[in-house]
Every structure is written in structure tokens, then in C-alpha cells.
Amino acid sequence: MNDPGDPLRLRLLSYNIQSGLTTDRYSHYLTRSWKHLVPVPSRMTNLDGIAQVLADYDLVGLQEVDAGSLRSGFVNQIKYLADSAGFAHVFDQSNRRIGRISQHGNALLSRFLPSAITEHKLPGLIPGRGVLEVQFGAGIDALHVLILHLALGRRGRLRQIGFLAELTHDYRHVILMGDLNSRSDSPEMAVLLENVGLLEPAPGLHTFPSWQPDRQLDHILVSPSITVEQVEVLDCTFSDHRPLSMAVRLPAAVRLEPEIPHIFPNPVDAAETLYPLAMQVAH
After folding, report:
1. How many CB atoms lie within 10 A of CB 233?
2. Per the CB 3.0–4.6 Å rule, which of 106, 180, 195, 210 could disulfide with 147?
3. What integer pLDDT is reported at residue 3 of this predicted model?
4. Domains in the chain, ordered, with CATH?
5. pLDDT at position 128, please?
């Protein structure tokens, strides 16, 4: 966890949790596909294990997390993980809603109070992809944290990267976390790094598939203003992806508000009650 005496140092984690499902081999995508539609006890066991991992971090970007539907047993996985790992600030973006069966999306868990949250829809032939943008501070030295899950097809990813380049054009300090469905040496990653002006400090760290990783689909990218101290893939198999961890140091001009003292029984309720934020939804 971030040292309160050193607020400029952050521990980051990006994790595609596959809605709490474990996959041990490629054949499971077919033989266990039914688990994506109905609740199974192993989901809760995996969520408890994931929460133990998340507790060591300051900012956590999640993908393929369920906001409460039939398949999750109507458990809001985002809130459950936040409560279990002790995060006071929780924000989610449900991008693909299938009635009561699935509430699929991105989320950010934070130990610092944001100044603004914006949901963006990503372009694509198939709807259901988005960017959750969480801003810390104001003005030119605000920190912009983007959580996203890019398309499966290269053409779709390139369109989405064009959107990201336009979105971040005037941003000085950016952290981008997510499942980009792209290898570090792919053409679209080269376009993303050049056009959005970000760096990948340690390319080629394999995160997928979790049971025998041989490619990197999950990435944490940062602006040149942000110093990266450590990057590693964690040895966790709660999902079909492994989590990617990074320790960074922010520029001195970036200001972070500390988490709210837990004066409410539920830290998430405390955040919503004491600090209502103006939600900006981009369509």
C-alpha cells in the first residue's frame, strides 16, 4: 500500500478477472462456457483470493468485472472487492448489459479521492467497449487514469486508439491500464505509444493465458513525466489472465487527496455520502 509519508509513490495493478472464473486450459472456453451465464460457488472463492491481492495496491484497474447479475449471484463484484480489500473510492463502467444475466465492464478502486469521473464509449462495429477515466487534481498537472478493454479485432483496436489519441491530446500526466488485446510488438501498440504519447516500461511480460503465459495482452502505460520503479506479472491464476503490477513515482506537481477516514460502517457509502462527485458521461 502507498506510504502516507510518500504520497507521490503509487502501486498500480491491472487485472482482467474474467468475472471471477478460473480457466486452466483452452478447452475450458467451450466445455465450461455455461459458467459465464449462471452463478457457481467457485466465483466467490476466487473473488476472496483476488481481494487479498488487491489489498496491497493504491490504484487497481479491473476488466471483465460484473456489477451484479444472475451469473454473479447478483453480487456486485466491484463493491465486494472494494469492501474486502479496504478501498474507500470505487467507480465502475458497465459496458455490456445482457438483461439480468450479465453486467460486464471496467472498474477502478482507489485509495485517493478523485476530482472527476468520466465514462467514454469506444468506437467499434460491435458496441460494448468503453473507457473509464478518473481524474485526480485539476488543471494542467492533473493525473488522468484510464481503464479500458480494447476490441478483439485489429481494425477495431486501431479505431479505438485514434479515439484515445484525441481524448488525451492535452493531458500531461496519464496512466493507462487494461486488457489491450495486443502484444507489445504489435503494429497497433506502436501506433498507441506514438500517437497517445505513452511509454511501456517493460514490454514483453506475459500475462495470458494464466495457466501458461506466452503473450502480453495486459498493459500499464504511462506518460514520460511518470517515473517507473518496478514492473512484474503476479503468479495468480484466479482468471484466464494474470495481473500486471507496477510501482511508479509521480511528478511533484501532481496532488492526491488521501482516502476518507472510515467513519461509516461501509467505506464505499462514506465516499458517496461525504464526497458527491459530478459524474460526466460522454456519449
Report:
1. 19
2. 106
3. 53
4. 9-281 (3.60.10.10)
5. 78
